[in-house]
Structure formats: C-alpha cells, structure tokens
Amino acid sequence: MADTHQRPMNEATIKRLFPNASKSVIEANLQDYGQAHTDNPRKIAEPKCPIGNESLAQGKGEKAVSGRVHFCIISVRKRLIDPDNLVPKFYIDACRRLRLVAGDEHDKITLETAQRKAAKGEAEYTEITITYP
Predict the structure, then answer these.
(1) Which of 100, 120, 97, 104 lies closest to 51, judged by CA?
(2) Has this prediction a pTM greater than 0.70?
(3) Of 77, 74, 86, 79, residue with least CA distance to 122
(4) E strand map for 3-123
(5) Which residue from 98, 91, 52, 97 is spatially nearest to 75, judged by alpha carbons?
(6) Less Cβ around it within 10 Å: N or C end of the chain?
(7) H helices then E strands: how many in the chain?
C-alpha cells in the first residue's frame, strides 16, 4: 500500500532522492521545502488548449471562395511509402486553420496526392500547391 503521508524533507531524504546533489542544492531545498515562492518574478505558465479545438466558423465580413479549391500534395522522400500512408489531413487542416480555404468538406476541395523518390543528395520535403477556382 502506498504511503499517503508526505515524508518530511531532510538532508537524508534529499541525498537519497538526488545522490549527486551539491551542498548548495541540498541547502536550498532544506530552506525552501514547503514554502511558497511568492518572491519569484517569473509568471507561472497558464495551460492552453491544444491546436485544433477552436471553432472554425467563418468570421464576419469574410467571403467564401466559390467553387472547389484543388490541393496537390507531392511528397519527396528518400524511401517511398505505401500510398495510404501519405496522409494529407495535417496539411489541409493547417491550411483551413490559416483560413486559406473555407473548409475541407467534399464539396469544397479536390485532392491529389503523389510521391517521388528524392534524387541523390536531395533533401526530403513536401510540396503543396493550392489552386483556387
């Protein structure tokens, strides 16, 4: 059964947990243990929602593109992969978040994916071409 009570921090506990701790680290931990750091000038980072959970509703005054936007995504790789692993979703969603396209529904985009083997000495990259109607 796990010990639910917190052990008091002392020099022996610090040395057990951090066997290579310097004397100054041990002294600082003994001094600071259990004390709030109210004099710390640094602000504590506030957690933020991960990218991709925000609303993608069209803003006021923005005009939607009429017709279907065409995406051509070409992957240049040293080793070719199975075609079903060339997943363009990340790129299209990024373009949608950047408001380059109104949406990724079937009536708003067409999609073409391809890959080719990189030439000797050529770096791997992904080329994305967006053609607006």
Answers:
(1) 97
(2) no
(3) 77
(4) 69-77, 109-117
(5) 91
(6) N
(7) 3, 3
What are the structure tokens assigned to 28, written together? 């600082």
Residue ranges per structural domain of the chain: 7-47, 69-131
Partners of 105 in the β-ladder: none
> Tokens standing for 16?
């057990």
Amino acid at 4: T
User: Using an 8 Å Cβ cutoff, are 110 and 68 in contact?
Assistant: yes
Write the CA distances from 17 to 6, 14, 29, integer angstroms.
14, 5, 12
Give residue-wise pLDDT tens across range 35-78: 555 565 666 666 665 555 555 555 554 555 457 899 998 999 99
